[in-house]
């Protein structure tokens, strides 16, 4: 028996076809509460995948460390750019 079609708003981003993308984006909830809930879901998925397992390895801490390094680089980029453009006599 065929399964009933799933509404577009209930599809995941990877399941949405390119023609359905504008409709899917219009059906999303853009409130601050929805944003916080999505951040919480992402945190919970990351925690469940990389920190909770007994044999999680180095991948979780390595990703957090690399994100910290990239963020720090963006913070000091203006200062680094000014030093690069100076001429030392």
UniProtKB/TrEMBL annotation:
InterPro entries: F1F0-ATPsyn_F_prd. Pfam families: WRW. It is a single-pass membrane protein. Keywords: Acetylation, ATP synthesis, CF(0), Hydrogen ion transport, Ion transport, Membrane, Mitochondrion, Mitochondrion inner membrane, Phosphoprotein, Transmembrane, Transmembrane helix, Transport. GO terms for cellular component: mitochondrial inner membrane; proton-transporting ATP synthase complex. GO terms for biological process: proton motive force-driven mitochondrial ATP synthesis. The chain crosses the membrane at residues 58-77. It is found in: Mitochondrion inner membrane. One of its GO terms (molecular function) is proton-transporting ATP synthase activity, rotational mechanism. Coiled coil: none annotated. It comes from the Eukaryota. Component of the ATP synthase complex composed at least of ATP5F1A/subunit alpha, ATP5F1B/subunit beta, ATP5MC1/subunit c (homooctomer), MT-ATP6/subunit a, MT-ATP8/subunit 8, ATP5ME/subunit e, ATP5MF/subunit f, ATP5MG/subunit g, ATP5MK/subunit k, ATP5MJ/subunit j, ATP5F1C/subunit gamma, ATP5F1D/subunit delta, ATP5F1E/subunit epsilon, ATP5PF/subunit F6, ATP5PB/subunit b, ATP5PD/subunit d, ATP5PO/subunit OSCP. Subunit f, of the mitochondrial membrane ATP synthase complex (F(1)F(0) ATP synthase or Complex V) that produces ATP from ADP in the presence of a proton gradient across the membrane which is generated by electron transport complexes of the respiratory chain. ATP synthase complex consist of a soluble F(1) head domain - the catalytic core - and a membrane F(1) domain - the membrane proton channel. These two domains are linked by a central stalk rotating inside the F(1) region and a stationary peripheral stalk. Belongs to the ATPase F chain family. This is ATP synthase F(0) complex subunit f, mitochondrial. It comes from Pantherophis guttatus (Corn snake).
